[in-house]
Model the fold of this input.
Amino acid sequence: MTSHQKNILIDRVFRYFGIFCTFIGIVLLFIFIGTIFSEGIERLDYDFLTSLPSRKAEKAGIYTAWVGSVWLVVMTALISVPVGISAGIYLEEYYKKNRWTSLLEINIANLAGVPSIIYGILGLEIFVRTFGMGQSVLAGACTLSLLVLPIIIVSTREAIKAVPDSLRQASYGLGATKWQTTSMQILPAAIGGILTGIILALSRAIGETAPLIVIGALAYVAFVPESPLDEFTVLPMQIFNWTSRPSQAFIYNAAAGIIVLLFVTFLMNGIAVYLRHKWQSKFN
Done:
C-alpha cells in the first residue's frame, strides 16, 4: 500500500468513526428525553404548574419552584449583565496591554472553567455569612452572578472583537470620541453576540443546583418569594428533592419537572441561536 492509499484509508476510517461518535450522542439524548417524557408527560398539567409543594405526590406542584427560578434569573441578570458588559467593553476598548492586564485576562478566562460548587462556597462565606443575607433570593442571585460573570465578559469581548476595525476608524475620522464610537457604533454592531452570551450564561444559571445547595437554599418552601430577601427554592432543587424520595410517584413528579426545565433551557438556547444567526447574516 502506497503512502497516498494509506492516507485515504485513514481519512475514510476517521470519517466513519466520527459518524459513530456523533450517533452515540444523539441516541443517548433521544433515550434520555424519551424516558423523561414517558414518565412525566401524564403528570404535566395546569394543576402541577400552579400547586404548592405537598407531602402527597399526587397533590404536589412546582409553583414555588418556578416562581423562585424566575426571581433568581431576573435578579442574576440585573446584577451580572451591567457589570459583565461594562468589564468586557473596558477590557477590549479602553485598557492598555501590559503584564498585569494580560494576567487579568488569563484569570477571567480560567474563572469560566471553575466548578460551580466553588462559587457556592464563596457565596456562602461572602454573601450569606459576611453580609448577612441569609438563605435569600439576593444571596443566591449574587452567587450565580459570580458564576456567569466570566462567561458574559468573555462573550462581550469576543463580540466586540468581531466588529470590523474599519467601523472604528470611520467613526474616529468623523471626529467622534472613544465613548461615542463605542456606544453608537461598536455596541449596536456587537449586540447580537453580546445577547447570545448573556442568554447562554443565564440558561446555565437556571439549571445550577450545587452552589444553591451550598448557600443553604431550601428544598421545601411552601410560599413564593415576595422580595429579594425572602427564602426561596428553584426547579433543580425541587427535582433533586423528589428524586431522593423512595416513592415512585415522586419520580414521575421529578420527570415532569425536568420536562419544564428542559423546555425553558431549549427555549433560551433557541433564542441564542436565532440571535447569532441574525447577527452573522447582518454582517455577511
Notes: The mean pLDDT is 84. The chain has eleven helices and no strands. The CA atoms of residues 132 and 169 lie 49 Å apart.
